[in-house]
Amino acid sequence: MIIGRLLQGLSAAVVWVVGLALLVDTVGPAQMGQMIGYVSISLSLAIFLAPNLGGVVFFKGGYYAVYYMSFGMIVLDIILRTLLVEKKVAKNWTVNEEPAGVDIPIPDHSHIHGSTILDLDLHSAPRPLRRHPIVTLLSSDRLWSALWCTLVHSILLSAWDAILPLHVAKLFNFSSLGAGLMFLPFALPAVLSPLVGKYIDTHGTRVPAVVGLLSCIPPLVLLRLVNHSGIRQIVLLCALLSILGLTLVVSMLPFFVEVTNVVTTMEKIHPGVFGERGAFAQAYGLYNCAYAVGILIGPLWGGLIVGKAGWGTVCWSLALLSGVSAVPAALWTGGWIFDKNATEAGGAGLPETAVEAGSKEVGRVDNKHEQS
Fold this sequence. Notes:
73% helix, mainly alpha, single chain
């Protein structure tokens, strides 16, 4: 079983990272917030449906029926991936479909400053020191902040897996189905993810990141009040889980987009620093590592603390973790907050300093040729 779970985690990590890389390659960094919002909907639905669907199939069809269902979904996934056409391949098809006999005009730059375009001194621009993409990415404080907040988010999300079913079974005598349904109000706010993502694409990542983490504190603290049986307690629990689910949606999307923005900004400031293929896959691999570590810590956090100090301590400790994590989110998300020259440029998160540096570099090349 342990080997099987290791292989399952390995395959899931590969599929997740490749899928995110395909997503950014298809839609571009400027629309990643809204697009990852749609991905968040499917992820939340899967997290909610999988345990309940597995339980029903196990109850009706037995142990092996669950694996038959899984094998069928794997076959369907393989078929869809085989039919997938990458954007770069589709572009080649579009180019090849140009009607014959149509001449595409090529601008003549040979008159510029009495020389050909090949005479431009392209070596005047500084070349970045080529290092492994992961080493270059980990040199960014902004990325470290995003990875830390991603880890915290996954802890806040997964801590309930180990304690919520046991807590509701103890207080309300819920069956396994009833305990599973308690995750429904937790997952439903994910339908608002595209709206949150669209806001991030338009206004940047810092405000949603800080607001999301700070907004997690009230529902986490108030969950301590769910400590006895009764209909009112069930309603209170569902309402607080819904609010917490919404705040987690707001706090998740900015950090995923932030990882994308870090790669985009580095590439804009130092073109070619990641090579021809870029570093989105490596960045999403780091993101996935941080998320996976949080998924590992979350149930341990919840289970150990609830066994030693009780339900209430779990709630306020998670609230404290969320509040503390809002500090690095405020300082580094979207760029160092005290850098007056660094402001987010739309969804790309490109600091103005990078744009100015690029403009000055182009100006130096032009002036050099004017003097010649």
